[in-house]
Amino acid sequence: MDAGKPNRNPGKRPESPTMEHVLVALGETKEEREIRIRSLFKFFDNSNVGFLDDAQIEKGLSSLRIPPKYRYARDFVKVCDANRDGRVDYDEFRRYMDAKELELYMIFQAIDLQHSGDICPEELWEALVNAGIEIKDKELAAFMEHVDKDNNGIITFQEWRDFLLLHPHEATIENIYHHWERVCLIDIGEQAVIPDGISKHAQRSKLLLAGGVAGAISRTATAPLDRLKVVLQVQRTKAGVVPTIKKIWRQDKLSGFFRGNGLNVTKVAPESAIKFAAYEMLKPIIGGADGEIGPSGRLLSGGLAGAVAQTAIYPMDLVKTRLQTYVSELGKTPNLWRLTKEIWMQEGPRAFYKGLCPSLIGIIPYAGIDLAAYESLKDLSRTYILHDSGYEPGPLIQLGCGMTSGALGASCVYPLQVIRTRMQADSSKTTMSQEFLKTLRGEGLRGFYRGIFPNLFKVIPSASISYLVYEAMKKSLALD
After folding, report:
1. CB 19 within 8 A of CB 102
2. CATH 3.30.365.10, domain 19-185, yes or no
3. What is the pLDDT of residue 474?
4. What is the pTM of this model?
5. What pLDDT digit, counting tens, does each position of 10-51 carry?
6. Which end of the chain has the lower number of beta carbons within 10 A, N or C?
7. Element (H, E) at 396
8. How many Cβ atoms sit within 10 Å of the Cβ of residue 158?
């Protein structure tokens, strides 16, 4: 969008918007606004019972032709219902309207860069792009057409308010666009399809770069814990954490704690790229003709994509394990290429896939446990932290939920990790079942959890560092 916005008597933006500013923008008096809000309440309360519940709001939204799966009846009740009795009386409804109209006015002002009292296509486009949504001209025109009811090419605050007033979620640009793509159908030929979402418009290469840098830094920061975990996993005799740390230091000093980290970091970009590409390819296949993909579909798509990525980069993972478990002589670190050549010459190409089977078996259970725990923790946070406000948990809460669910998922499939690592480190032709029985008979159940504490200790710093670096990269790459 290269065209500039015409100057339509730009004025000063009020520093602290109040309801008085909202009334001026709407061209209403307090009395007129009161009548409008009461009429809207009666529209939903068509039985004249004096309160609103899920069913009444659902019925009202249905009459507004909002697609059934995208109605927000429950969320609307949660946001409005201050006394938590499951109903919304007029006073609660009125308080919601006050807060929502003020919120919408503030974001309207933020988009209205010329402070002219309306939003033109160029301003809307700029706001969307700044939020990481690269919308096409055709979709921008459809957005404007849907909101601009009088078809004069601009969006007034009244039109903006009417479009978003019943949307109970926080009025961010991303949420507003997502709301539009859900409730607005665009006719294309003989079909009506939901416009492409944020996932399509996001600048994927930049997001991949941000994720890659974040992953590389977090893996490097937690490399000592990873080396400690791997060394403990292959121990078949009782070995404590402290003695193992001393052993690594004695053999290689500080560099010993970072052995294999180069390969671990190198894996990040190709693994993420392959997983991302495979996931995008699998989504329409698993989702079906309508393109819808529910939680089970996401789990299956994510699991299969993870399996594809894991298989593709697995030889690097095996060589990393061999590097980390190699016994140094006089502090000499093994040469990467020589070690790789030895594996190829002495054990054959199939050796690079030792332990792949337990690795793949653990993907779906891990993802399932992680997803279930994450969603459960998010629900608990909505209830006990956000007090059923209807808003989504913020990034820090989501980070905490992700760390906890990830640790739980990793713990549940950890025995498979131990079997995989031992198969990778063993140059003999040992099958998964043989390794399992060998561990069970020789060490009991405890043998399957060797090194689990360093693994769990990695979760918090790894997730935190990844999150902080990722957010910093997004800002530097103009993805925020």
Report:
1. yes
2. no
3. 62
4. 0.56
5. 344 445 788 898 999 888 899 999 999 999 999 888 888 999
6. C
7. helix 395-412
8. 15
